[in-house]
Amino acid sequence: MQENNGDDISLDDDDGIQNLPQKKFFRQRAHVNPISDHTFPYPLSPDDVEWDKFFVSKPGEESVCRYLDVGCGFGGLLISLATELPELCGLGMEIRAKVSEYVQKRIIALRSQNPGQYGNVWCVRTNAMKLLPNYIQKGQLYKMFFLFPDPHFKKTKHKWRIINDALLAEYAYVCAIGAIIYIATDVKDLYDWMVDHFTRHALFEPLTEQELEGDRMIKLITTSTEESKKVERNDGDKFYAAFRRIEYKQHQVESPTS
To answer: What is the pLDDT of residues 164-200, one digit of tens each?
Structure first.
């Protein structure tokens, strides 16, 4: 039986929602176990995702997700990207129920307060580590964001980290050639871990320092999220990088001449 691909809040529920939700009513623990079984609806395949139920597109514009904010938290980056990338639709994926509900209500309120805006972003409650291929087609994405993810400090839990060898294969699958994946964290050990995994992968290459300096996304990934602002208030460090999806380059070995 096909699972419903909707989420907790329907876009039809926006009547009368004008005020932005108050975060104090949506508090939840910072992280949850991504390996645990969670009960929420999800599509059986990307063909079952009805994007026009998430996005409010203008005539002539596509309503297909082109970038993902994985573990979007309270939606700071997602909201910023709505106006920074008005021509693209973006989806936030958040596993925590109350937090995803907050983001949905925040977007609905912003839409009602700003007619014609914020129709290009939405948030779903889901587990990206398990269900990403259920939502996204091969080569569909132009950008992905992994900002201040759970460090999972214990060595026995490193397999739970959102960046690992197995998941990088999935991220490469859903990214178009030339797509950029952005990472940011305040934990140096996690930063080194993520950079190492991307650098070793055959389908990604790091952006150069010059490219990073000219990328307008860099300022957003280090300043727009609630977690980045918390790090700044505490005078913490921020580590970031970006990686480009490339085509596989098969190394050819010349046959010895006789």
So the answer is: 999 999 999 999 999 999 999 999 999 999 999 999 9
HSE, CB side, 13 Å, CA atoms: give it for residue 219. 6
> Where are the chain's structural domains?
64-245
- pLDDT per position as a tens digit, 16-28: 556 766 665 556 5
Identified catalytic residue from 15, 150, 196, 237: 150
- Residues paired with 141 in a beta bridge: 175
* pTM of the complete model beyond 0.90: no
Q: Which residues of 62-90 are buried (b: 16+ CB within 10 A; e: fewer)?
A: ebbbbbbbbbbbbbbbbbbbbeebeebbb
* Extended strands (E) in the chain: 65-70, 89-94, 121-125, 141-147, 175-185, 204-206, 239-245
Q: Is 47 a catalytic residue?
A: no
Q: Which CATH number applies to 64-245?
A: 3.40.50.150
Q: Where are the alpha helices (DSSP H) in the chain?
A: 76-84, 97-113, 128-135, 165-174, 188-200, 209-213, 217-223, 226-233
